[in-house]
Each structure stands twice: as C-alpha cells, then as structure tokens.
Design brief:
eight-stranded mixed β-sheet; 25% helix; 3 helices; alpha+beta; four-stranded antiparallel β-sheet
Length: 256
C-alpha cells in the first residue's frame, strides 16, 4: 500500500512539473526591463545588429529594431519542426515617431506556448529588443515584411559557398559599414537564414580538409603498395596462376 502511495505521489509531482514546463509562464519582467542601446537611424523597415557571433559554449546575441507603424501587436516566435515556440526577448523598448520612449514592462507583453506577443502603443514608431540565436547563425521569421538590413559581427562574412549562406537568396546586396559586412534586402516576405564565419574558421576548415585529403591519399598509395607486394609474394611461391593457363581441370596452386 505504501509503495502504491509513493508511486502515485511521484506521478502527481511529475505531472505538475510537466504542466508547468508546457505552460511556459509569462515573460521574465527583469529581462524585459534590462537596459540596452539601439540604433534607431536605419532606413530599412528592419535592422538587426548581431552584437557577437557566439561560441561553442554560448549563443550569439542580436539587437533588432522593427518599424511597427500601423500595427496593434507584434508576435515573436521561432519555428520548430512540429510547432512554434516563443522568442525569448530582453531590454524591450518602443520609440514613437515624436521621439518618446516606452520601456520594459510599461509595454504590455504576453507569452503563451508558441508566441511572445507585444501589444503596441496606438502611435506609430519602432520596437526594439535583444535576443539570442545559435552561434554564427541567424534564423528568424519575417515578423514584418519589407526592407531588411543585418549587420554581421566584426571580421565575419558569408561569401564562402561552403561556410556561408544567405537566404532569401535573391534581392540582396552586401555593404561594408564601419568595417562590418551588412546584408541588405529591398523586400523580405519569407524567413531569413544567415550562416557566417570569421576568416580563421575558413583557414582551419580548408587546412583540415587538405590534411585529411593528404592522409587519405597516403593511405591509398600505401594500400596499393601492399597489394602489389602480396601479389609478388604469391608469384614467388607459385600461388599465382596465369588465367591463360587455367583449363579448369587442374587443382589450385600448391594443392596438386
């Protein structure tokens, strides 16, 4: 009886824990109220500044500024394989066209299982926030359709066809601004996906490919040399039979 009670208690605890995870709770108010500096001067509808590229142990961080004029809300999410999940944001700010600011929890921000929903002020303006993405990648749905500018981290590029990638593939150009590569689209209506790299990554990658190629080539020649030696040994011991002399009636070499 005690064992059944214990199992029932564990099951209820797991159910409660799972329900809490699935529900997701509301947005983190402390994160929403964090301070950050944004560039509001971009001419594009969306400006994304990838502040750092991330590493093996940390995600990349980016700052985004969206022109949300004429909108009542902005839904922020990441697309998953089976379902969407809410985008985790911090340091949220709204700047109206007359230059006044609304910060953090003064904005009405809600979160459900799939979306972070920002209810916008009634006036036109721009919404900015900070978020994270995978190291050396940026994947974002087109929350707002229109022109986009993405500033890559310093010393990073997308030009290499193996290490870099830009999507949408058409309608974009690259510019260098203050020593940083910028990807600029005139019109975006589908998700954007960038893969970027630093020069040392390219040297390491192609150096590794060259090294592995030399090892494979050396192994190939070594294997062929061993095969030739084996054939010569078989001939020396009379174990190699000339196909022209094989009438199918004689036993294999060494067994006659």
């Amino acid at each position: 009886m005690n064992r059944r009670l214990l199992l029932a208690t564990v099951a209820v605890a797991l159910l409660a824990l799972t329900a809490g995870c699935v529900g997701g709770g509301g947005p983190d108010e402390e994160r929403l109220n964090e301070d950050a500096t944004y560039d509001w001067s971009a001419q594009q509808d969306v400006y994304i500044d990838i502040a750092n590229a991330g590493s093996l142990t940390s995600d990349a961080e980016f700052k985004a500024v969206y022109d949300v004029s004429g909108r009542e809300e902005l839904e922020l999410y990441r697309s998953g394989i089976t379902s969407d999940r809410p985008l985790r944001i911090s340091a949220i700010k709204f700047r109206s066209e007359n230059g006044t600011f609304t910060n953090g929890t003064d904005l009405n921000v809600e979160q459900n299982d799939e979306r972070t929903v920002v209810n916008l002020p009634s006036e036109d303006g721009k919404l900015a926030f900070t978020s994270e993405t995978d190291p050396k990648e940026l994947r974002l749905p087109a929350y707002v359709e229109g022109s986009y500018r993405v500033a890559l981290p310093p010393d990073h590029s997308t030009e290499d066809f193996l290490l870099g990638h830009v999507s949408p593939r058409s309608g974009y150009r690259t510019e260098t601004v203050d020593g940083r590569v910028n990807i600029v689209w005139s019109d975006v209506s589908s998700p954007i996906f960038l893969k970027y790299y630093v020069d040392r990554d390219r040297y390491f990658f192609y150096g590794l490919v060259a090294s592995l190629g030399l090892v494979a080539l050396g192994g190939y020649f070594h294997f062929n040399r061993q095969i030739r030696k084996l054939k010569e040994m078989r001939k020396e011991h009379g174990l190699e039979l000339d196909p022209e002399d094989d009438d199918g009636k004689r036993p294999p070499p060494g067994m006659g």
